[in-house]
Amino acid sequence: MEILAFGVQADEKPLIERAFPAPHEVRCLDVFLNEDTAPIAAGHEVISTSVNADLGAPVLEALAAGGTRMIAQRSTGFNNIDLDVAERLGMTVARVSYYSPHSVAEFAWTLAMAVNRRVVRASTRTRDFDFRLDGLMGRDLHGRTVGVLGTGKIGEAFTRIAHGFGMRLLGWDIAENPACMELGMTYVPKDRLLADSDLVSLHLPLMRETRHLIDAAALKSMKDDAILVNSSRGGLIDSAALVAELREGRFTGVGLDVYEAEAGLFFLDKSLEAISDDTLARLVTFPNVLVTSHQAYYTEDAVGQIVEATVRNVLDYSAGRRSENVLVPRS
């Protein structure tokens, strides 16, 4: 069986190509799956997709018409997939339910420290042999308060690092994590967490209930000199509302590894094109904002685990097995 993998980055291509055992073969494409590229999958029973693939109803129907029966998504998130339509079409859908939480947690801290200590500005200056310290003053995080929205595996890993910094720990989630509580975390209502925290980090899935969880009101409730970090899903933050607050001169720093309209932008080279997204164009101009291209998960360890899980998902489908990774079972 030949598996067609969409949206494969150059660094992960050799990992994917080596991972599938005979008689299975994989063909890697750097293009992302959408309505325009869906016809490429014709004749492939199994395809693999990235988190920025468009798996809405029109794409799923095109895939099904072309003979695709199984989708193996190489991510934990699946908000880009219309599961109801996939089930109606008799398609099996699987994801990667777990990979190294340290990859994302460590990168979230990279963003937090970079905006706090003005690392990007300092690096730009020194390349021009400008070694002044004006405008580069940061703050000690030791003794300050961190608010962690979402305390699952990644949130827990982030909290352990915060504990190492000697920070006061506040958490918010639908269920309390005993491991975080052992570290000294206090669970509080979201409004209190936002109001009391010097650093707020988001580690939540994107669902109907969490979309724009950080909206205009939530942003206004935060400290003027707070740091906000999002390495989860872009839709958790109302980007237009964030721009409005930044224009008022608020927040010490904002670190974003995700953006709510990133599909069709992130993972692609748009350097020679005009960007029509006014909100993103405005975000990247603020000196206290750092935007990266959804790379928090992108370590050898995490990508290796993602590939291994994807291979298992395909092999399970072929053998008629079902695992915890299956979102829509084989009909």
Automatic annotation (TrEMBL):
Stored SUPFAM superfamilies: Formate/glycerate dehydrogenase catalytic domain-like (SSF52283), NAD(P)-binding Rossmann-fold domains (SSF51735)
Keyword field contains NAD: yes
Domain D-isomer specific 2-hydroxyacid dehydrogenase NAD-binding: 110-296
Keywords: NAD, Oxidoreductase
Tree of life domain: Bacteria
The enzyme's E.C. designation: 1.1.1.28
Pfam families on file: 2-Hacid_dh, 2-Hacid_dh_C
InterPro entries cross-referenced by the UniProt entry: D-isomer_2_OHA_DH_cat_dom (IPR006139), D-isomer_DH_CS (IPR029753), D-isomer_DH_CS1 (IPR029752), D-isomer_DH_NAD-bd (IPR006140), D-LDH-like (IPR058205), NAD(P)-bd_dom_sf (IPR036291)
D-isomer specific 2-hydroxyacid dehydrogenase catalytic domain segment(s): 8-327
Molecular function terms from GO: D-lactate dehydrogenase (NAD+) activity
Family: Belongs to the D-isomer specific 2-hydroxyacid dehydrogenase family.
Protein name as catalogued: 2-hydroxyacid dehydrogenase
Organismal lineage: Bacteria, Bacillati, Actinomycetota, Actinomycetes, Kitasatosporales
